[in-house]
UniProtKB/TrEMBL annotation:
Family per record: Belongs to the DNA polymerase HolA subunit family.
Catalytic activity: DNA(n) + a 2'-deoxyribonucleoside 5'-triphosphate = DNA(n+1) + diphosphate
InterPro entries assigned: DNA_pol3_clamp-load_cplx_C (IPR008921), DNA_pol3_delta-like_C (IPR048466), DNA_pol3_delta_N (IPR010372), DNA_polIII_delta (IPR005790), P-loop_NTPase (IPR027417)
Species this protein is from: Clostridium uliginosum
Protein name: DNA polymerase III subunit delta
Domain DNA polymerase III delta N-terminal positions: 20-147
A Pfam cross-reference name: DNA_pol3_delta
Cellular component, GO, one term: DNA polymerase III complex
Keyword Zinc-finger: no
Length: 344
């Protein structure tokens, strides 16, 4: 079993195997890997007759085998691509288990002209390829690519490559900011990049463009998290934080959102002391009335001193998260615990 980064290095060297299983949560990342094999072996033509795609949720073993046995047309190789091959799941129905059994017996006798590629998606982040008995059995016969989250450098490089493929330049600072702000899911990443390119046509991408276009899908979660911090219900706050991490697995994104939330509350707290009203905050923060009303209500739960202290905790946690070798989830939990020590 190899990870995605090892797989990419092998493809760059031209070391292509006769069969693959891809698995993970990020379907777009998986498809990118599969497309790199197709590109290297039979070319990029979408209508290529040597590319056979099979729906893994509707297929049977005979369909897969017949596709593998058919000779390629005017080519040395053909690719049989079985997508969403749910028969590879540990817990499957009888029909799926039968397909798996036949596949297990068949793959060692694949024709030399066939490259068989299958993938299936994890149900959630708790699922692990190395815990799947079917995958572990096939790992002796097929190259299994575990498409887990990329390391930071590889993640940023892949995002940079997407911009390059679309002939759009982005500065290093803006690239880093975009990488930290966007959700770690390449389907979402590609859509957000398309939005940025369309919006900034004819000019360079700026940080303000990223802030404007990338929606903060976790605003309600962050609001709830701050509410629990205000009520000093830290255990419940930890549960909320784990739920947010489960959705995005982006510690930097969460801490930056949390920090911005407390900064808004601090601005509002100062403004209220100066006699400002809701419409002033609407203009100042460029937010709709109902959002400003919610923020004003939430600001009443903290003192000015508390907000200042919690912002400092967020800044320190952000610095720690950028350091290698630290348990990022533990750092986030320590932040929540330390909010209890901030004096009013």
């Amino acid at each position: 079993m190899i990870n995605y980064e090892v797989f990419e290095r092998e493809i760059e060297k031209g070391n292509i195997k006769d069969s693959y299983i891809f698995c993970g949560l990020d379907e777009e990342l998986i498809k990118d890997g599969i497309n790199s094999i197709i590109k290297k072996t039979i070319g990029e033509d979408k209508d290529n007759l040597n590319l056979i795609k099979i729906d893994g949720m509707k297929t049977n073993f005979d369909e897969i085998m017949n596709a593998c046995e058919t000779f390629p047309l005017m080519s040395e190789k053909k690719v049989v691509f079985v997508y969403r091959a749910n028969f590879l799941r540990d817990k499957s129905d009888e029909a799926s288990n039968n397909i798996y059994k036949y596949i297990n017996d068949y793959v060692s006798n694949l024709p030399p002209y066939t490259i068989l590629i299958m993938y299936y998606l994890f149900n959630d982040k708790r699922e692990r390829a190395n815990k799947n008995k079917k995958i572990n059995s096939l790992d002796k016969l097929i190259t299994v690519v575990n498409c887990d989250k990329l390391r930071r450098d590889a993640y940023i490089k892949k995002i940079s490559d997407i911009f390059k493929d679309k002939n759009k330049e982005i500065g290093k600072i803006e690239l880093m900011y975009f990488s930290e702000r966007v959700q770690n899911n390449f389907d979402i990443i590609k859509r957000e990049i398309d939005k940025l390119i369309s919006y900034t046509e004819g000019r360079e991408i700026k940080k303000e463009d990223i802030n404007l276009l990338i929606s903060n899908t976790g605003e309600e979660d962050v609001f709830d998290l701050v509410e629990l911090i205000a009520q000093r219900k830290i255990e419940l706050a930890m549960d909320i934080m784990k739920d947010i991490l489960h959705k995005s697995d982006q510690h930097m994104l969460i801490i930056s959102n949390l920090e911005r939330q407390f900064e808004k509350l601090y601005e509002i707290k100062i403004g209220l002391n100066e006699g400002k009203k809701i419409h002033d905050f609407m203009s100042q923060l460029k937010l709709p009335q109902f959002v400003c009303e919610k923020l004003v209500m939430q600001s009443h739960r903290f003192t000015e001193k508390q907000l200042s202290g919690i912002i400092k905790l967020c800044v320190n946690t952000e610095k720690n998260l950028k350091s290698s070798g630290l348990d990022k989830t533990m750092e986030m939990e320590l932040l929540l615990i330390n909010t209890l020590t901030v004096k009013k």
